[in-house]
Amino acid sequence: MALGTILPSFPQSHFNFPVYHPNSRRNNIRTTFLARNSNGTQPSSANGYPTTITPLTESKPFSGKLEADVIVIGSGIAGLCCAGLLARYEQEVLVLESHDLPGGAAHSFEIKDYKFDSGPSLFSGLQSRGPQANPLAQVLDALGESLPCAKYDSWMVYVPEGKFLSRIGPTEFFKDLEKYAGPDAVREWQKLLDAILPISVAAMALPPLSIRGDLGVLSTAAARYAPSLLKSFAQMGPQGALGATKLLKPFSEIVDSLELKDPFIWNWVDLLSFLLAGVKSNGILSAEMVYMFAEWYKPGCSLEYPLQGSGAIVNALVRGMQKYGGRISLRSHVEKIVVENGRAIGVKLRSGQFVRAKKAVVSNASMWDTLDLLPKEVIPKSYQNSIKMTPQCESFMHLHLGFDAEGWGGSDGRSPPAALDRPFPCSEHVLSPSEFRLANLSCMHGIVHIGIHEDLGIHHIVVNDWLRGVDADQNVVLISVPSVLSPDLAPRGKHVLHAYLPGNVEGSGGALGPGFNREKCEVKLVGTPLTHQRFLRRNRGTYGPAIQAGKGIFPGHATPILQLFCCGDSTFPGIGVPAVAASGAIVANSLVSVSKHSQLLEAIGI
């Protein structure tokens, strides 16, 4: 799980148990599990997850210093970005994580030498630097952390029109469009690129790390980058400048304004939106999509996968934070946020201990879970109602497999099996409908069926029916085989597979079927939204608010409770790794002076 570089660990005198060292092999030896062993080493349900949650609900007494300038609740990407920058700003920061591993929905876990990503697997811009870099890359740069990555430029796509290897870049995709959608789609795609790429200059002219949540933003962002913004508007001309005014509106409005009619183009744009933020084009900010187009369809572009998986990102953020004196305590479950005279003054742990926050408490929990941490009597009724009325994004079903890549027969890892109704190789019993469909969708579209080929790609995306919509329940399957690019994720000659598709809590209860046989798959886990709710402390297992761009805005980071802030996918700019990294940075910037913020921007060259 670690990158292997030995860096100074934060002194253990601040902790009793457990201290997290991202480079220590002993982090793999634990008594608690997230999505854990299906091979009988612990009592488990048929889907491979533990039948008891006792280990996770037991909080160890916190014997370190019961005080910090800022307490961060939760160690998701946003929480770690916030904490890391605060430590860089010389603030005393403490991250309290309920789980036995950091990372939230982006953490990695290990079973029998198979290392799995629990969440995101599609990344770009992780190694970028400068004003136009990915916000996560900017935070890593500020913390002096590098992230080794494998580069690639394509994924396999299985859509109703056919299957093809989709390549990013300015020209390759046109060949697929010509073949599967026709000349009208080619013309409309070119029209879309011609409109979007100039707008991207404005979208990327303001570095996310320059933004803060107070009037200081006039200095750190507006004044600092006004010349580059004005220059970009001048370069775009009147038409481009008009398009730039739509950056905070739904991306579908840009597509509409171009009078694009080809159904494949609309479907493809919806699919890209879904891959980026879990919503269709009418629900995503144009700024997010424009940024993605600029990254994916420019000359020489590439996608990146962090070696050692998403856990490598988490480890890098933890290392960077600890390097500057930040602390993190695992299995430290926050029971309540303590409010006194209208101010958040600290938190109460499940162990009964009170940890004081001298300056602020930052919650990386969802808006619904944060609400549950607050005393009801101190929360304005309007604030409670606005959160309760906010719709939630549906969660996902997950399949994790560790399997032998040899001896499965077949010759083409990119071709579907001859018989689409062939049983899933690991299936011996009759599974519940949800579990059977999840397993067989992976099977039916060329990944774990009758052959593993040498040139098997890392990503495979399946769309069963465009008419149902990409966000329909169990309609789109996203399959990742990251061991193709990072072989250390699996034992020699073997692979890890992570497949996920939209699902909801109401339909997930029957997914806990009788399990798989052990003949071919050495590790197999089926996770449901209830799994996310249980292990990630996410209300209904959701990935964030379902706020449609143009019809609502993501909440800001301040709350009605003084000294209480929020970051993560429940806040601006929204859902997705770059967005949550930016939200964590915005909160950290807002908690320090404008001069310190400006000094950091100078130090990292943006």
TrEMBL record:
Protein's name according to its UniProt entry: Amine oxidase domain-containing protein
Source species of the chain: Escallonia herrerae
Annotated ranges, domain Amine oxidase: 77-408
GO BP field: carotenoid metabolic process
One Gene Ontology term of the molecular function aspect: oxidoreductase activity
Entry-linked InterPro entries: Amino_oxidase, CrtISO-like, FAD/NAD-bd_sf
